[in-house]
Each structure stands twice: as C-alpha cells, then as structure tokens.
Amino acid sequence: MSFLERASTGMEGLDRVVDYLRLGDNVVWQVNDIHEYRILVNAFVDQALLEERRIVYMKFGLEEALPAPPPGVKVYQLTPEDGFESFSTRVHSIAEMEGRGAFYIFDCLSDLLLAWATDLMIGNFFKVTCPYLFELDTIAYFMLLRNRCSHQTVARIRETTQLLLDVYTFKEHLYVHPLKVWNRHSPTMFLPHIRTEDDFVPVTNSSQAAELIQNIGARYTNNVERKLDYWDRVFINAQDLRERKHRGEPVDEGEEREVVALLCRMMIGREPLILELAQRHFTLEDLLEIRNRLMGSGFIGGKSVGMLLARKILMNSRPEFWHNKLEAHDSFYIGSDVFYTYLVENDCWELRLKQKKSEHYFESALMLRDKILKGKLPGPIREELNQMLEHFGQSPIIVRSSSLLEDAFGNAFAGKYDSVFCINQGSPRDRFHQFERALKEVYASTMGEDALSYRLQRGLAQNDEQMALLVMRVSGSYRVRYFFPDLAGVAFSHNPYTWREDMDPDAGMIRLVFGLGTRAVDRVEDDYPRIIALDRPLLQPHKSFDDVRQFSQHYVDVLNISSNALETIPIKKIAQEHKLFEFWDLIAVADTDARRRLKELGYSDEEIWIISFEKLLKNTEFSVLMSEMLNTLQSSYDYPVDIEFALNFDTDNQFKINLLQCRPLQISKTQVVDGRQVISCIDEMIFSSTGDFMGIETFERIDVIIYVDTEQYAALSQSDKFQTARIIGRLNRMFSRSEGRGFMLIGPGRWGSTTPSLGIPVTFAEICNAAVMVEVADQGGNFAPELSFGTHFFQDLVETHIFYVALFTSRDKVFFNRKFLNSAPSTLGDYLPDFTGWDKIIRVIEPRCQGKMSWIDADIKNREVSFYLSTLDAVEHDQS
Question: Is there a contact between 512 and 532 (Cβ–Cβ < 8 Å)?
Fold first, then answer.
C-alpha cells in the first residue's frame, strides 16, 4: 500500500491499532458522549490540515463535533427536519461537488432520531451514503451514541461501514475497542485498547478485560432497550402514560400534551396547519390506536390523515349523532419509512438521486419505475402485511396512495398517484401476491409522468415525497357475483359550478354515482354522474327530460368476485336485478317513454331505468346530512374542503356514510375588482358564452392560441389522433404564463379523453402550462364537452389556474368564430419544423404577429365569458 492510499487518525498509537486509515474508509465511533468523539475528531482534523487535505464538516447535530472549526475546514449546515430524502440528497450533492479524496466529519447520527423518529431511517441513510463516499476515496467520521440505536440498526451500519469502533472512558482513561476493521487484522486488533500518553495499549490480561467490560456494561448497557428502536421506546412510554391514566393515577396535562405533540410529529406529518388540527382533535388514545394499525414506521401520509381527522372532527362535534350515521372503518396504514427502505434494499437509491437532476428528471423516472415494480419487499415487513391480510380475510380491499405531500393545503395531488383494488379472492398465497403487486404499482406511480409534471410545476420536484399507503376495506356488499357500495361520490363545501344566479356557491355540491366512486372522481367517457347543488338539490342544469336521459349515469363500476377484477357494466344489466336493491326506487325512475318507443319498434318489452336520485334527494335526509358534514369540516379546517364517500343502505332503507377521504379544497377565490377593466375597441370576437365555464374572475392577455380544427381532426386515423396529442404536448413545453407566454387551447370535445373519437387524448402533463382550455361541441354531437366538476381533472385545472370554457355552439347566447381560427396565419412550423404539414389540423395563432392582442374576459357575477382581439394601438390607448 502506498503512502497516498492511507491516512492517519492523528494519533500514532491508534494508527498502529487499526493499521492506518485507507482511502474509502467510513469510520463509525460508538461513544458515550460528544466529548469522547471530539478528542478523536480534533486529532484527525489537525493531522489532515498538516497534510493539506480537504476537510468537510457536515453540521446538523444538537451538539457539534467541531464547535470551532479551524481555518481550512469547509462547513455545510444541513437540516434533517426537511426529511430523509432531502437530507440524504443534500449530502450526496455535497460529496459529488467536493469530488474525490475529501475528508468528512459528521455530527452525531443519533441526533437524526429527533427529526426522523426511527433508527430504520438512520440505517437507510448510512446504507445509501457510505458506499458513495467509498467510491470517491474519501475518509468519513461518523458518531453513534451508545445504546441510542437498536441492535438491528447497529447491525446494518456494521454491515455497511469499513470501521466500527467502541469508545468509552473508565477510571479517567480513554479506551478504544475495534469491532470491525475491514481488510485488516492483527493478533490484538480486536481487543480493547487503553490510551496512554502517546500510545494505545491492548488490554491482554483477562482479569483486567473482564473488569473493564463488566463495568462498562453495567454503566451503559440495557439489553432490553437496545433491542428496541427509538420509535418503539417512544410508544412504550406513551402506552405507559395511558395506563397510568386508566388506573386513575394523576397525570400532568402538560406531559400528555407533549406526548400527543410528539406522536403527531412522528406519524401525522410536518405541515403546520395539519399538525395544529391533529393536536387539537386527536387524543393520546387515538394516536395509539393509529400506531396499532401501522405497518412498519414513519408517517401515515396525507390521505390517511385526512380520513382520520375528518372522522374525528365530526365525532367531536356531535358524538352520538355521527356515531349512528358513519360507517366504522378498520383501515391499516403502511408507514412512509417502508417506502424508502424498499428503495434502499432494492438498490434504487442511486437511480433515485439521478432522477432528481433536471437533465434526468423524466428519463430516469422510467427506469426507476421499472425497478420498483421488480423489487422485493423487505423480510420484516412481509410478516406484518400477512397478518394484516389475515384480518381482512377475503373481503375486497383497496391500496391507496397516501404520500407526505398529498391532500395538503395547497397541493392535492388529485389522481396523480395510483389506488389499486385487490378483489382479494383465492388462497392466502395468491391474495398476498395480489396485494404485493398492488403495493408496487402505487410505489411505482410516484414516477408517473403526470405526478412528475405536477411536482415540477408546483416547485416540489426536490421535496421529500415519501409514499405511505392506506389499506382500506372496500365499502359495500355482495350482489350476486359483484361487490360494490350502493352509492358513492365526492362532495365540496364550495360549489364552483353555480349555473343559475340564485344559487349559492358556499352551499356546496355533490357528484354522486351508483356503485363504486371511481366514476365520480375520474373523468369517464360518455357517462355522467348526478351533480347536486346542496342549496337546490332537486335542480338540474338540464332543460329537458331528453337531456336528463342523456346526461345521466349509464354504466356502473363493480368488483367482479368471480373474475377477480374491476369491471364496468351497463346500468341496464344491473337494473334487471333491481329487486335485489331495496333502495332502487330512491335512486332510479322508470323511463316509460323509451320503453314504449322500443316496444313499438319491435324490441322486447323490458323496463328501462334512469339513475336520477330524485327520491333520495326529495324524501330522505341525505342532502341535509351532507350539508352538515361539509359545514362542520369546513368550519374546523377554516378552509373549504372536499371529501370522498360511500353510502350503503340497510333493509329499512336507512343508510350510513363511509367517509373515505377529506382534504382542503384547492380553489381560487373570485377576485373582486372595482371597476372591471374593459377594452373599448374590440377588433374581432372569437367566442362568447353565458355560463358553462369555471375559474376566477379573469381579465388576461393570451399570447398564443393553439387550435385543433374539428373536421380535420375527425378525419384523422386513430394513430394520428394520438400523434395530435403528442404534438400539443411538445408545444405545451414551449409556452408558459410564468415566462409571459400564456396560451389558450381550443379543440373538439374533451381534452384528456382516453377515447380519441370523443376528444384529444392528451395527458394532463401535455396541457399543464395552458392559461385557458376550451372544449367545443361540434354540430353532429360526437365531440361533446363534459363539465367534469369534482373530478381529479377538475382539481388539476383549479390548482394550476387553468380557466375552463365549454362551448355548446348550437345554444342561444353562444358565439364561436371558426372562420377566424381557420383562416388566421399559423406558426406551427416555426416551432416544430418537422410537423409543418400538420398546420391544417393544429393551428398556432399569435395575434401579436398581426399587430393585435387577444383577451379572455370572464365576468363571474353575470356568468359571461368572451375572448376577442383588439389592435395594439387601441389597447395601449385604453390602458393609458
């Protein structure tokens, strides 16, 4: 070994004990207090400075390893409270920037417990950091407080590090006891060594060694506690506090509040507003019950918190009433630490770090997604999950994403991550494999394009985004070979779609379906839930019974127990068995006109039903109950909320509600402007409409119009329709309001349709930079907009402040200037030269090139929206 490949500890005697340090060594010191570590660190740093080494100090602990770093030591201040991922990524980035051969001093790893709460994450941090430092030929000093971390964590560190040494003080002498020294050995290396003036001398006398170890053990070792994670010790103390209360022993209120606050920080999250709500409503008993249902450790995630918190808020408001109205739940939670451990144990971390870099953001995500899907669950968690599945038996369950950032104030992540049904049929082994696949699919959805685009757009690309999971029993019952809830839906305490002037937006709204709620939260093709304005529940936006028939629910989502799959079946198929549903008259009306017409045409005489929910809304307390629920939750959140729910009837047509999710509603409140700005000289009107739009009070300049012509698009092949979507996605990345290039999308039918014959099959990531999105109904009716208020698609539009307009061109008070859009010059070829031939289908119109400006003008009060051109001179004159 050459001189350049080795380094000194700064203590000549210690160098002889471990045969010097080698480039690449990670050195972990187990000490009793920081002062022992400082002795070793100071000697190491002084020697390194003499040798003109680059020294980097990673500062993050409660007590500093280098309280006064000497000149020549580069100090980085780290923040563990930002989370494991942010902290680990920062360390990796510093090491990458510092390059090869740097020497590192880390503060006490045990202090990370205060931010991360579990030994597991310290082990994960070391396991992803140590190998990278090894590759860079560094030498790094780490410290662990003895008996602060569990045996399991120390074992993981021992397995990963190159040197692990015990340090202790006995009878005023410093002892060093090497436990692991990689690739080195001597007859006395692994004995305790006592520090003399200039040397470390092995303790070879058996009597002295026994006395030393016995005394050290008596002072510092608690074998029972060392087997426990810090996480477990906290909960054992909390359990002890609860038992003291139950025994009637006096318990200080301040002590209980502190324990509740600590448990909330460990399981609920970091967001101040949510933490404040949790500490106000959850009791010590509530938090211990959450822990009993938590698989692994870490946070339970936003979706789980929202569901539990909403239930608790209601129960605290009227305990007996809501106890009788709410279905009980027996959900389980898979902690966020399991996600990171899964990535670490399946060698995904290096790829994860690469994916964080902007140049690899989307490309590496595809590889990481594939690797996640092929990974294996760590052994310890598998047994816990097996026990959980035994609890559910063969009842259908759903594995739902519950990430740290989901359902928070400002970020809903609505529909960005997967939720996967497990029909849960078959042998225990088969059912576990189904569940494992579902878990991996949700984990892998963190690398989905829509999720990545959402995080990037909202400035969250570098944030700590751990994926916890919520495992719920599917609400519902068996009907022949199907399983589904009787009704389901989403509800909002603020109604963004008031289609009449006498409606109150603050009364709230519901999007209600028969069967699984998937048809309420997703934008489905050619199917419509019932939209209920809670101040006028019987009022519908449709003018005729033909409209009611067309704009109603025609399909139902169910779980097929026989085929072990999620299925969509026609309502008429279920309606044939309507006598199985005691509540059928509450939700459906017979369509006698359609039945008569079909009979006259020679078809079989069978009943035809329309799902209208008329009697449910007219003859039951459903609307009143939902109003109270939403008002109570909004009052507690001090913010509008939206919820997901299921509803099931009993044999007496009484029902209970299963509250599945609650989150702050991502709304943009109307901006009240005194004296609306108006352009007096309108050069050309492009469209105008009354109603059928959503967004805030808007007066905004639009720089670019991207228009897809209906006739040209309809004539395309299936593959070219998908190509249209991809081209728009490329244009989307070229324009942005934040860069002064706000653009409007105008196209036939539904943007984001999965069926190209009904609209343009873009993903949300391909239209996310738009300022305005317009859906145009064609004369033939094939391309029909769908006002998807309440869906995940709706949430995307609201969160990204995309103003939405549906143009039903055959209606009164609707004007649409196709002639202008088809004749204006297109600059598509300037941006995408390879697609010049597409400019008859996709037109990129820039009014400024014609000496004009275009404006979207939405008057919320009068429910009017218009889009028009004005000459530049006129605009400048008006604005002056």
Answer: yes
How buried is 844 (Cβ within 10 angstroms: 0-12 exposed, 13-18 middle, 19+ buried)? buried
pLDDT band at residue 668 under the 50/70/90 scheme? very low
Summarize the confidence of residues 761-789 as an average pLDDT.
Answer: 77
Q: Which pLDDT does position 796 carry in this prediction?
A: 64
Residue-level pLDDT at 669 = 41
CA atoms of 741 and 738, how far apart (whole Å): 7
Hey, CA dihedral for 305, 307, 312, 317, is it positive or negative?
positive
Half-sphere exposure at residue 691, Cβ-oriented, CA atoms within 13 angstroms: 14
User: Do residues 278 and 290 touch, judged by C-beta distance below 8 A?
Assistant: no
Write out the two tokens for 684: 């050309």
**Which alpha helices (H) appear in 689-762, and where do they start and end?**
710-714, 718-732
**Farthest CA pair distance, the chain:** 111
pLDDT in the model for residue 242? 92
Mean pLDDT over the full length of the chain: 87
Rounded Cα distance, 29 and 40, in Å: 9
Cα distances from 215 to residues 44, 168, 527, in angstroms, run 29, 11, 76
Looking at residue 845, what is its pLDDT?
A: 93
**Which H or E run includes 694?**
strand 693-694
Token pair of 247 as six digits: 């025994």
Please state whether beta strands 193-195 and 21-22 pair in parallel, antiparallel, or not at all (unpaired): unpaired
Closest CA to 529 of 793, 784, 786: 786
CB crowding 709-719: b at 16 or more within 10 Å, else e: bbebbbeeeee
Q: How many residues does the chain have?
A: 880
Give the whole-number percent of the chain exceeding pLDDT 70.
Answer: 89
389 against 601, higher pLDDT: 389
Q: What pLDDT digit, counting tens, does each position of 341-386 carry? A: 999 999 999 999 898 888 888 889 999 999 999 999 988 899 999 9
What backbone torsions phi and psi does residue 383 show, to the nearest 5 degrees?
-65, -40
- Structure-block tokens of residue 250: 């006096």
Give the 3-state secondary structure of residue 854.
strand
Pairing mode of beta strands 693-694, 684-690: unpaired
Count the Cβ atoms, other than its own, within 10 Å of residue 553: 23
Give per-residue pLDDT as tens, 713-735.
999 999 999 999 999 999 998 88
CB 491 within 8 A of CB 510: yes
Q: What's the CA gap between 334 and 466, in Å, rounded?
A: 11
C-alpha 851/C-alpha 856 separation (Å) is 17
